[in-house]
Amino acid sequence: MPPDRHLRQTIFRAAYFNVWRGGDHFQPLHQTAFVIKHARLQIVGVHEAEGNLARLGQLSGLAYDEVGDLLSAYPIESSRTLATADFRLSATRLPNGSRLWVLKGHLPETAYGPYEVRKHGLELDVVAGEYASGRVELMRAVLGELDAIAGEENVLLLAGLNSPSHRDWTPRVVDRHYGVSAQWPVTCLLEAAGFVDAYREFRPNEETHPGYTWTPGYPPPKKTKHEKDDRVDYVFYRGAGLRLGGAALVGEHRSVADIVVRPWPSDHRMVLGEFESHIASGTL
Question: Which residues constitute the domain of residue 25?
C-alpha cells in the first residue's frame, strides 16, 4: 500500500531492551512480552534474545527480524550485520512513507569502566582505559560503516554500550561515582557524530534523574553488596526528520522507573524514546 500523502507525521516509540538470557531466564517469556506491550512500543532493539526473538515478536504483536535483532510494527525493508563489532543495521518504512534506519548494537564488557573506577578511584585515567578496552575504536568504525550506508538520513541507535555517559558523570554528582567525574569517550564520540541521547535530552538533570539501567538485580532484586548502578543502555537519534517527544525508563519500581512492570524479568531496565517523524511538504 502506498503511503498516505496527507500523513506527514508519524509518532512512535522505540526502545533498547536487554531481555537477559533469552527473556525467559527469570520469568516466563510472556512477561518479557508484556513489558513491550505495556510500554506501547513500535520498534524494539532486542539483546540476548538467544533464539526467542520470533516467539517474543508473536507474544508482543510485533514482526521480527533475526538479522537486525529487531521487533517492529512497521515493514523492515532490509537488514544486515555490520562488519564491526556486534551491530546490525535495518531500514524500516514508517507510515508516513519515510525511511528510518535502526542501528542496534552492543559493545564488549571488557575492562568495564565503572568497575575499574571502583577499584582504582581517582588514580584511574578513565579515557585511556576506555580506549584500551577497544570500545571507542569499535564505535568509531561502526559510525564509519553507518555513514557510508545511511548518509544523512534519519537514524535511531538502540544500544548497550557498556560505557557510561559523560553527561552523567559530572562534577555535580561525583559522590555517586567514587569522587570521579569523567568525559566517557564513547558517548562523546556519538555526540560529535551528530547523535542526541534521548533520555538525557528529555531528562537533563543527572542529579534528579540518574536514569540507571544497570541493574535491577540478577535476578531482581538480588545484587552484590558493592554493585555499581549506572546508565549503559541507550536510545540515541540523528536526523532532521526526527523530533523527540519524550523518554522513559521501564523497570521494577516507581523509585527507579517511569513505567513500572512487576515482576521485572531482566537484569537491565529498558529505555525508550518517543519520536515524531515528519516530512516536509512535497518530499513524498
Answer: 9-278
Q: Please give the Cα distance from 201 to 47 (Å, whole number).
A: 24
pLDDT above 60: residue 283: no
Give me 244's grid cell: 523527540
Structural domain tally of the chain? Answer: 1
Q: How far is CA 257 from the centre of its chain?
A: 15
What mean pLDDT comes out for the span 103-115?
97
Count other Cβ atoms within 10 Å, centred on residue 66.
13
Query: How is residue 207 written as a grid cell?
Result: 542529579
Question: Which H, E and C letters describe 88-105, residue by residue?
Answer: EEEEEECCCCCEEEEEEE
Q: What is the pTM of this model?
A: 0.95
Q: How confident is the model at residue 173 (pLDDT cuts 50, 70, 90)?
A: very high
What residues pair up with 63 in beta bridges, in sequence order?
A: 72
Q: Please indicate, yes or no, if residue 189 is contained in any of the structural domains.
A: yes
* CA 49 – CA 31 distance, rounded (Å): 14
What's the distance, Cα to Cα, between the start and end of the chain in Å?
A: 14
Nearest to 212, CA basis, from 179, 178, 177 = 177
Q: Cα–Cα distance between 90 and 69 in angstroms, integer?
A: 9
Residue 63 maps to a domain:
yes
Residue 4 domain flag: no
